[in-house]
Amino acid sequence: MGRLSEIPLSVLDLAPIVEGGTASDAFRNSIDLVQFAERLGYRRYWVAEHHNMPGIASSATSVLISRLAAETSTIRIGAGGIMLPNHAPLVIAEQFGTLEAMFPGRIDLGLGRAPGSDRMTAHALRRRLESNGDDFPELLQELRFFLKEPLERQSVQAVPGGGADIPIWLLGSSDFSAHLAAQLGLPFSFAAHFSPANTIPALEIYRQNFRPSATLAEPYAMVAVNVFAADTTQEAERLATSQHQSFLKLARGRPGKVQPPVDDMEAIWSPEEKAAVQARLGGSIIGDAANVKEELNAFAERTAADEIMVNAIMYDHTARRRSYEIVAEVWKSETSTSAVG
Q: What is the pTM of this model?
């Protein structure tokens, strides 16, 4: 692809819990945002599994997907992703088989191999602590087996789930899932929103090693990126400091709720901490509509993405809505110009 005018846009939501707010507030905001995203023309809306994170409410991912799908009618709803090593594959097959049965043709299943948590939380999730994600291919194979049409006299079946037509995506922030998605001929989604340095190498691995499958004839890569858009670049930069603070707290080993934006991060972080956060968030797109248009086009060209997924964690929900609205306006202006041209 490579041109913003030619590719769809989607939304990544972690259901952020802000300082002074509750999980109930986060879910109300997610419902409002998914309905808004549907009206704006975004293709899909994914929520991500995280655990023991005071600022993220999307831990019971399948439950949240069910509510978001019920509150919308056309936009695809999915997991970006389910951390498969945390679960028995049969349970995920049943959960997503249930979702597909309730909302036919609208459910996506994105899968990750990380725990989405710290080691103590992983243990509380009944994961084996010696596991490092190397068993992910076997877990994936088992899950895909349960999602196929059951064999005659198959002793254990996913009901619902067996025979369900649920698109499976592999998610990655390094090259492991890039290799696996290429080998299996599955769509691939890369987390450039927190792993910018690995983006191009992982995409190259995926595309160069891709094997056509019954699922895909050609590689399909969706790339997630942080976009903080506002009516002025100064305001966008200020809004982005909430996510900067969240990553700073995580780096300090004290994750917390999403904090209000600040005018100057220099008073909060040390030079070393700034470098660590920038290594994670340095690929973010921050600015007014003109800046966002220029940088999104450059990002689309640089990654040759088939689809872009936009992430934005902000303290103020109205500002977050406006950010996604500006991105949609930029995208529509590009598609209109392309159509006229």
A: 0.95
